[in-house]
Design goal:
Elements (H helix, E strand, L loop, with lengths): L10 H7 L6 E2 L2 E3 L7 E3 L6 H19 L8 E4 L13 H5 L5 E4 L17
Antiparallel strand pairs: 1-2, 2-3, 4-5
Length: 121
Amino acid sequence: FKNPPGSNLSTGKMIDEMGMKGEKRGGAVVSPVHANFIVTEGEGARAADALALAEEIRERIRRERGIELEYEVELWRAGGEAVETGRAQSSNEAVNAGQPERVEPSRGETGSAKEGSEPPC
């Protein structure tokens, strides 16, 4: 997640202070090293797991701190359509909107997904 604009707040520190390091959803986990990273465990991890965990983090910070977090990554469907991330959405809405998701870093690097399959994180 991006750090909140116009402040000295660290998103990683807020996540850590809420005790979410090590929090798991399926094969995705909040990194025990840096709380602003979601990492995967094993080959069974799915993009849906990472998105569900990310949305839980966003919701908790929104509810407990009144801060709306923005993704630092861009989310794209396998067909090339961007997923709207400027508003809260359920992970089912993002993932099950027709095609599997792939998560691409915002720095222009690209990911790939085999058509018709759930891409790994």
